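Box 3.1 A note on notation
Throughout this textbook, protein chains are presented in two layers. The first layer is the amino acid sequence; the second is a C-alpha cell string describing backbone geometry. Keep the layers aligned when reading.
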Amino acid sequence: MEKHVFKFGDSSLAIIVPKKWAVKHRLSRESRINVSEGQRGELVISAEEMKSREAARMVDKSLNPGLITRWIGLNYMYGVSKLKIYSGDGFSQEQLGAIEDKLSTDCPGFEVTSQSHGEIGIEDFSSMKDVDLQKVLARIKFLIEQEFAEVLEGNPKTVAKIEKRVNRFYMMGTRYLNLAQPRDYQRYYVFLNKLELISDRMMELSADVTPKKRHIYKMLSSQFALCYPAFDGDEKAIAKAAELRKNVKDIVKRARLDHHEGFVFMEVANSIANIAEYGFMAEKPMPV
C-alpha cells in the first residue's frame, strides 16, 4: 500500500494510517501507537506498546547462587523488565554477591531497585529497543577476532576475560531481539547463538596450543573472517566458508587429536559455516 507523506507543522512530516487498520485496532483520536525502525531502515508501526514483562521466584538461603543468576540471565535475554526474588530465610552473602556480579557483568540496564531481608527487586533502566544490533554484532566480531589472536599468542587467561565480554554482548543482542522482534529475528537469533558457542569453545581449547593446533586455529580464523560478509549474502564468501570447513576437517583428521578436541574444533568450523549459510536468507533485489 503506497501512502503519501505531507508536511505537518513547521518541520515535521506525517502520513495517514489506513482507516481499516485503525478500526481493527480500535484506535481513536487520543490513542497511542508505537513507532520504531527495523533492521533495514523500514518504519514499523504497531497499535500497542510492548507490554512490560515481569517474573518472580521464591528461593532460600541454601540455594546455589549460580542457579539464581542463571534465572536472572534467562529472564534478561527473554525481555523481562521487572524481577522479584523472595526468600523466607533471607539471602546469603554469596547469593547477594553473585547477583551483583551478574547484573554488572552480563545484564546492562538491570539495576537493583529495592532490597530487604526477604526480597530483592530488579528493574530495567535501559531503552533496549533503541539498541543498534549491527554495532552489537560488530563488537562481538572484534572480540572473537581478539580471542583468535590471544590463543595464537598463548594467553588463555586473556581469552577467558574476552569470552566474558562476548557473553555480555550476546545477552544484550538476544534481549534486543526478544523485545524488538524484527522481521529477520530467526536469522539473527541463530547468528548470536553460534557466535556465543564459538567464543565458548575458543576458551575451552585455549589452554594447550601445540603447533598442530596452531595451524587449525589459523584456518578457523580465516574461516571466521568470511562469516560476516557471508551472512550479509556474499555468495562467494558462503562458498569459501564451506570449503574451509572441509579443509579444517582434513587437518583435524591428520592431526590425530583426541576425540573431544577433534569434536570441538569441528563444532567451531561447523558453527562458522552455519552462520555463512544463513546468508542465503539475506534479502536481495530481484532482477528486473
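The first helix runs from residue 19 to 24. The radius of gyration is 23 Å.
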